[in-house]
């Protein structure tokens, strides 16, 4: 079929789609050992898409044993980097070649607009795989500055078996930010997608095999966190656990590692990112556009969402007015309509969380400026209006807790010192925006922010070359860039007496 260009094209493709719902172990699709499945329901219209294999400890044991065996055998782990590179590039090509199908699976499974599933999610996933693959034959090891009669070699080796546990908001991208560097460095990987969005991970596994990744090197175990996720996190033969998800679960994973084999644990967790607009912002309209997309894009289900808008007194009213105007173009529409830019929330549970926070905002005395309501209920799907609260103080729940929905909290400040104080008054430290024409103020503020990413005079920038991750309870370690390779390699010092 040619590329769909209208909602009815996408609906036709959806009707003809065969959805794979099995686990993927040692190069083959299989049911869970227990035969259990869980329902995969679309938030677009409430339709049951399929029943997905619900893996648990028994499946984790088989997958880890296979992953270990293939790692020891060296069919992938000992392959020359240039060869692994070629396979990774082929894998990226195949993701792109199957972009329509993957984008459709992503949209049906977790509700995001098809436009973004294709241009952001599939494209970003392919970029991550390709970038990591292209990098791997260009990274050199080190030789220590020794005396004449000895040689000190400092080499990187793959850790072995990696378990990757990922969330549902960008299912393919979050997976590929882990798969790129872990596969490129020669590890065997077990990917556990979120129970809310398992479909693209299941499909990607087959494309990886088609690209030439040997069986057992990439395994996919769909299932719940408390079953298969926990089994992987406690497993004695998983060497490294990489995770993207909530801070609450991230902390639990550190406990599991301590209770088991001290596996390395790398966490990308939640955020409550401040977007700071000073009176001297160079372009208030641009700041408003960015602030609107920072809270509305992906239905607000973004770890780096600019959910706290810190605005200096002098421009507060004007900026709120501009953002309110901007957010009118972010009203939800049908996710398969190519013009839609806001889709469905991932599921009814998440919708209730968002509506609960909107209620809490009103109860704690914040001013509801716009939005706040569930919409399009007649579709059977779950949709909510982008919402703005003004007169918010940083101690209110809508300002201190991660909502993971399109709810903006506007907090007023007076001067740089107060802005920095409010910005840092959070358990999180993922990202921050700063809008000012004053170069020195921009740098001073950026340096003072306890945050892994700072964006000056825009929001949410960066590409594969820039590390992505947080300070404080937003996690440790970084995805993207060569820094991500640190998570998947051990450093060996070999000292040779000549
Ligand atoms: P979550 O923590 O509920 O779940 C994440 C994953 O962990 C899922 O696969 C889940 O099944 C699994 N899990 C749950 N309990 C587990 C357990 N006891 N043992 C092992 N695994 C378990 O998070 P979510 O709701 O899927 O995703 C939203 C969160 O992800 C938000 O907090 C968001 O900020 C964060 N996030 C962070 C980044 C980042 O890069 N920092 C990126 C995207 C999302
Ligand atoms: Mn789903």
TrEMBL record:
Classify the source by domain of life: Bacteria
The molecular function terms of the Gene Ontology recorded here are: aldehyde dehydrogenase [NAD(P)+] activity
Q: Which InterPro entries match?
A: Ald_DH/histidinol_DH (IPR016161), Ald_DH_C (IPR016163), Ald_DH_CS_CYS (IPR016160), Ald_DH_CS_GLU (IPR029510), Ald_DH_N (IPR016162), Aldehyde_DH_dom (IPR015590)
Active-site residues, as the UniProt record annotates them: 268
* Ranges for domain Aldehyde dehydrogenase: 31-493
Q: Which UniProt keywords apply?
A: Oxidoreductase
- Record family assignment: Belongs to the aldehyde dehydrogenase family.
Q: Which PANTHER family match?
A: ALDEHYDE DEHYDROGENASE-RELATED
Q: What is this protein called?
A: Aldehyde dehydrogenase
Question: Could you tell me which species this protein originates from?
Answer: Shewanella aestuarii
Source organism phylogeny: Bacteria, Pseudomonadati, Pseudomonadota, Gammaproteobacteria, Alteromonadales
């Amino acid at each position: 079929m040619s590329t769909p260009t209208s909602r009815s094209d996408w609906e036709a493709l959806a009707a003809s789609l065969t959805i794979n719902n099995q686990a993927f172990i040692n190069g083959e699709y299989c049911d869970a050992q227990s035969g259990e499945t869980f329902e995969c329901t679309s938030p677009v219209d409430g339709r049951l898409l399929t029943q997905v294999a619900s893996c648990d400890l028994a499946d984790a044991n088989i997958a880890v044993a296979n992953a270990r065996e293939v790692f020891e055998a060296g069919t992938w782990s000992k392959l020359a980097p240039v060869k692994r590179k070629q396979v990774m590039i082929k894998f990226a090509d195949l993701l792109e070649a199957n972009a329509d199908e993957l984008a459709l699976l992503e949209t049906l499974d977790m509700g995001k607009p098809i436009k973004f599933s294709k241009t952001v999610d599939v494209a970003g996933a392919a970029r991550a795989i390709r970038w990591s693959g292209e990098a791997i034959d260009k990274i050199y090891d080190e030789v220590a500055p020794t005396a004449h009669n000895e040689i000190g070699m400092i080499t990187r080796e793959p850790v072995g078996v990696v378990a990757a546990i990922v969330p549902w908001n960008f299912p393919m991208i979050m997976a590929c930010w882990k798969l790129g560097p872990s596969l490129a460095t020669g590890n065997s990987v077990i990917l556990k997608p979120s129970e809310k969005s398992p479909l693209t991970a299941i499909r990607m596994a087959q494309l990886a095999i088609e690209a030439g990744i040997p069986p057992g090197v990439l395994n996919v175990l769909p299932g719940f966190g408390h079953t298969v996720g926990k089994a992987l996190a406690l497993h004695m033969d998983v060497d490294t656990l990489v995770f993207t998800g909530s801070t609450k679960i991230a902390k639990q994973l550190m406990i599991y590692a301590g209770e088991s084999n001290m596996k390395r644990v790398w966490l990308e967790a939640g955020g409550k990112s401040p977007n700071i607009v000073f009176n001297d912002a160079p372009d208030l309209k641009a700041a408003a556009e960015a602030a609107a997309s920072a809270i509305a894009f992906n239905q607000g289900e973004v770890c780096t969402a600019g959910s706290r808008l810190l605005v200096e007194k002098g421009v507060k009213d004007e900026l709120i007015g501009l953002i309110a105007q901007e957010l009118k173009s972010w009203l939800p529409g049908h996710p398969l309509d190519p013009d839609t830019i806001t889709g469905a929330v991932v599921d009814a549970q998440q919708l209730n969380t968002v509506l609960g926070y909107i209620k809490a905002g009103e109860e704690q005395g914040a001013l509801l400026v716009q939005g706040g309501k569930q919409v399009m209920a007649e579709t059977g799907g779950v949709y909510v209006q982008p919402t703005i609260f003004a007169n918010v103080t940083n101690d209110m729940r809508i300002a201190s807790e991660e909502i993971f929905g399109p709810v903006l909290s506007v907090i007023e400040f007076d001067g740089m010192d107060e802005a920095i104080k409010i910005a840092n008054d959070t358990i999180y430290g993922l990202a921050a925006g700063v809008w000012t024409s004053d170069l020195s103020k921009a740098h001073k503020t950026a340096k003072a922010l306890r945050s892994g990413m700072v964006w000056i005079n825009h929001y949410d920038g960066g590409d594969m070359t820039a590390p992505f991750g947080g300070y404080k309870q937003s996690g440790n370690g970084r995805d993207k860039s060569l820094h991500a390779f640190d998570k998947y390699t051990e450093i060996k010092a070999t000292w040779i007496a000549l």
